[in-house]
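tool_call: predict_structure(chain=1)
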Amino acid sequence: MAAIEAQQVQVVQELLTDNVDPASNTRCFGEIFAAAASSGSLDMVMTVLKHWDGDAGKPLLSIRYIHGIEAAAIAGHQHIGIKLLDLGRSLPKSLYDAIIFRVVNTGQIAVLLLLLSHRQQHLGLDSEKAFWATLIRSSVQYSNRELLQHIMSKDL
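tool_result:
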């Protein structure tokens, strides 16, 4: 984690090559991937992701990936959040809606719009209405006017 914070991509690369698990949590510093995403270094994020490629069977991988998107958005690194979404990893629908609600308060409108554009609608009309009502409420709560304008311009 210290190497990530110090922007030492080469050191992180060496550690990951020496079998440090990129999906592990550290005792005091949280998730390695979220730290990389919040660092602002796309090279750092891609270095960690490169070592995750064969790791698809690990539990919690989707949650850690979502935490990375959220960490990038909170830190104001919109380019990293967008890159992670553009990579097209398959995320469970239940987690996908949750990340949308958690990113509303960051004000990262480009990340939110990309999340919304990739979102799958709920099959039930009541669930879909509840999603949009919660999103409107969150937009108002966090004074996210751009998102609110986007929602209101949609034909829901």
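agent: The chain has two domains: 1-89, 92-156. Proceeding to next step.
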